[in-house]
Amino acid sequence: MTALNLPDPVTFSDRSCRGVDQEFFFPSNAEQKRMVRRFCGGCPRLAECADWAIPEVLAGRLAESFVAGVQMPQLYGKTPRQKRRENAAVELTEVAAAARDAHVEGAA
Ligand code: SF4
């Protein structure tokens, strides 16, 4: 279960995307999507960002862009909208867990 009212990642001065053009997070092809995933994968705030995004995406407040290296749900598609939100939330949960695991391993 994720706590509500987590700090918005824009408040983190050490986030990798500080000063990065927002357009970067709306990639239009597979290579650009890989670049965003790699970029976020190196962010020191990846776990916090993914945690923040989970309730946001479930509430329908995130769509189309990439957050924490995860594609937010498209506005339109064959899969029901709530299911797309839940799928993104699952992926964000996995990203947050993996980021924490990597942090623990790096500290060992
Ligand atoms: S994980 Fe990505 S979107 Fe989130 S704060 Fe870091 S660089 Fe920005």
UniProtKB/TrEMBL annotation:
PROSITE patterns: 4FE4S_WBL. It comes from the Bacteria. Residues 16-77 form the 4Fe-4S Wbl-type domain. Pfam families: Whib (PF02467). This is WhiB family transcriptional regulator. It comes from Nocardia aurea.
